[in-house]
Amino acid sequence: MTDLERKTSEEVAATSTEAAPEEADIVFEVEGLRVHYGSKQALKDVDMRIYRNRVTAFIGPSGCGKSTFIRCFNRMNDLIVGAKVEGRIVYHGEDLYANGVDPVEVRRRIGMVFQKPNPFPKSIYDNVAFGVRVLGLKDDLDGRVERALRQAALWEEVHQRLNDNAFGLSGGQQQRLCIARCLAIDPDVILLDEPCSALDPISTSAIEDLIDQLKKQYTIVIVTHNMQQAGRIADHTAFFSVETQPDGHRTGVLVEYDRTNKIFTNPSDARTEGYVTGRFG
Amino acid sequence: MIAEAPQRGRWAGLVFQCFLVFSLAVGVITLIVLFGQVLIDSQGYLDTSLLENPPSALPELAGARPAILASIYLAVLVFGFSVPIGVLTAIYLEEYAQKERWYNRLLELNIQNLAGVPSIVYGILGLAFLVRGIGLGRTLLAGSLILTLLVLPTVIIASREALRSVPPSIRDGAYALGATQWQVTWRQVLPAAIPGIATGSILALSRAIGETAPLLLVGAVTYVRFDPTLTSAFTALPVQIYNWIKQPQDEFKLLAAAGIVVLLVMLLVLNSAAILLRNRYQKRW
User: Fold this and answer.
1) Which CATH code is given to the segment(s) A3-117+187-276?
2) Do the beta carbons of residue B191 and residue A123 sit within 8 Å?
C-alpha cells in the first residue's frame, strides 16, 4: 500500500458512522474455544465478542474453520460423531456448553440457515410451520407463517400457492423460505452459513438486502466465501486462516477481528492484508 | 487411419451388444416360455371353481379356495408383523445407534447374514421353537410368524436403505429449528422414507408368498377343505401346487398349472404395486 492509499483508508475508517464494537450489547462472549474432530484440531483458541443487532461476518480460505466455528453457536457440532468443543461461549451470561444446557433449547433461540437451500419435502406452508409446531405453539399458526414469509420478503411471491411443494421454488426463493422457517420461531440470533454460495447474483442481492433489514431486529452471524459480500453487509468481520501443524494437520485460527472497515482498509495483520487484497487465498 | 480405429471399436461394440441381448434373452425367453406353457396347460382348469371350491379327490371338482385364502391371510399377517418391527429396527440402526460401538456392528453383521440364511433353516427353527417350543401348533399363526422371521432381515435392509437416502440436510434443517431427535425422526425422516420402505417391504412380502419349504416344516398340510382361521391348520397356494404336482393323475398336473397362474397373478399385483409406489414418489431432492 502506498502512503496515499493508507491515508485514504484511515480517513474512511475515521469517518465511518458505524458503532464501535464496545458501544453495543454483547450477545456472545467466546472464550478459548477449541474444536477437535477425533484427534484432529479443527479450530484453535478463539476469543471473540458478537454484538447485538450487528452483522458479524467470518471470512477466510477453505478449511480455516469458519463453518466449524459458526456451528458451535447453536451446538450443531454435537450432531457430528467425534466432534469435541472446549472452551466457553457465554450467551447472555450463560455458557452454552455448561453441563445441563439442552442443545434443543439453544437451537430454539439461535436459528441457522445452511449453505445449500434445504427445504423439507413438504408444502411451503408446512415448511414455515414446522418449527412452530415443533415448539407446540398452536395459536395463530396462519398469522405466524404469514409474518415470517413477509419478513423474509417472500410473501408476495408465494401467498397464492402456500400448499405447493417447496421444491417448486427457485433456489433463491428456497433460501428465503429457509430464512422464513427460521424467523417463524422468533429466534434471537440468526446464523447464516454461506447462504448465497449456491445462488445467482440477483438472488444473492435479494438475500443481502434482507439481511440488512433483519439486523434491526436480530443479531446476525454470517460465514461467507465472498469478501465483497462481507464488505457490503457486515459491521464486524473476523478473518480466519489455516495453520499447518508440524504433523501436517491443518488447523483454523482466528487472525484478526475488527470493524469491517478496518479489516478491509487497514488490517493490523499482514495475513489479513494479503487475503483482503487478493494476494493469497 | 482415422477411419480404421473406430472400425475396430465398432466390431467390439457390436459383439458386446450381442452378448447383452443374449443375456437379456435368457431371462426373458425362459419366463415367456414357462408362463406360456403354464397358461396352455391350465386351459379348462382356470375357472371360478378353482377359486371357489376346496380341494377334492376328483380333479374336475378340485379347487384351491382354502389355499388362496390362507395365502392372502399369510400376506396380511406377515406385512402386519414384519413392517413395524422391521422399520423400528431400521430406525434404531440408522438414527439412534452409535455405529462405532461393537454391539451395533455385530447386530448389523448379523442382520446381513440372516438375509442369506436358506428358508428351510427358518422352517426348522419354526418347527422347534414356535410349533413345539411355545406350543403354537401347526397353525396359520405359526406359519405367518416364521415367514415374518424370514422376510424381516430384507425389510430391515430395505428400510435402512430408504432412511439413509433421506439427505442429511433435512435432518440438519429440522435440528436447527429446535426439533428433538424424536421429532426429527417422526416428522421429517420417516415420512420422507416411506415410499422406499413400502417398495422394499412389498418386494420382501412377495418373496414370502412364494415360499413353500418353511411352511411345509411348520406343518402346512396339503389337504384342507375348510377356510382357514388364525389357529386352524392351513395350507398355502405354493404348498397346494406342490401337492397337486405330486399326484399321479395328469389332470392334477394341469390343475397345478392353473394354481401357478393364480400365484403368479398375485405376485404380479404385489410387484406392480411396489413399482407404482416407487414411480409415484420419485426422489424429490
Assistant:
1) 3.40.50.300
2) no
